[in-house]
Amino acid sequence: MKSIFQHQAATDNMSFVVKEYYQPHFTSPFHFHDSYELILIAKSYGKLYAGNKVLNFNDGEVYLFGPGFAHCFYNEQSFIKSGEIAHAIVIFFKEDFLGREFFSKGELAKVWELLSKADRGIQLQANDLIRSFFYQITGSKGLQTLILLLQLLNHLSGLKKEEITFINKTIPKLFSKDSNTNKLEAVFKYVIENFKEEVSSKDAASLACLSEAAFCRYFKRRTEKTFSQFVNHVRITHSTRLLLEQDMSIANVCFECGFGNISYFNRQFKKIMGQTPFEYRSAHAPKEADLLE
Length: 293
Known about the structure:
The chain is of the alpha+beta class. It has 2 domains: 4-166, Regulatory protein AraC (Jelly Rolls, Sandwich), CATH 2.60.120; 189-284, Orthogonal Bundle (Arc Repressor Mutant, subunit A). It has helices at 77-82, 109-115, 128-138, 143-157, 183-194, 201-207, 212-223, 227-245, 250-256, 262-273, 277-284, 288-292; strands spanning 4-6, 17-23, 31-33, 36-43, 46-50, 53-57, 62-65, 71-75, 86-93, 122-124, 164-166. Helix 2 packs across helix 4, helix 3 runs antiparallel to helix 4 and helix 6 crosses helix 7 (212-223). InterPro entries: Homeodomain-like_sf (IPR009057), HTH_AraC (IPR018060), HTH_AraC-typ_CS (IPR018062), RmlC-like_jellyroll (IPR014710), RmlC_Cupin_sf (IPR011051), Tscrpt_reg_AraC-type_HTH (IPR020449). This is AraC family transcriptional regulator.
């Protein structure tokens, strides 16, 4: 698997591209585009590598990535084994797809403000109306398709601040066109498939075709994390899903995520999430009243 720069050309004389994916699991490698990428995850879940971050992704979520923002959606084994089909709708468009001065117009100021921040990666809290625009776009033609896209961008730019999450605090260095970036894809795949077991920097270095010392320097330079920090981030990210979605004790969550020591798990969780696992579960788990609605 390689890190790939993907050029998205307009098709059928359209000024932007709409693609719908149905796959047993997502197969795109760690990559970036020369266009904006607006994504609806219609059906799927797993881990998203986005710039310098790793997070869970789920059904119904919407993401906006700017040109050059490196990312990869990677399905968990439980989804692949379920036999369900991964489904995503993706819209690609360039800053000047309607002319060089289009987004400089006053009435589009809020849309441009949103787009100008997409180089950090954005997760947008989608409602049913927003998701419906994606489905309508896939079934539309001609001018109607463009009108729907503009309506979608308008609704997204009108979301409240708390409904817009910037994935990276700053523009990640990871999107560089350095040809060696492809070394990371095999390492990410290795970690996501093995984080529940022992994960070693020696094995990761072998996948990257580097000595262990050279790999550790390279990984820290490219991701701004040590390899062990990255593995802990993947494990803690997974633990947040288990804490909210499964009736497991915190000790069982710890071991299920690859940690061998509960005290170390608690320390790492608080360091990364700012809360203890118990505090996180108490703050984020659905309340009984919510479940009855």
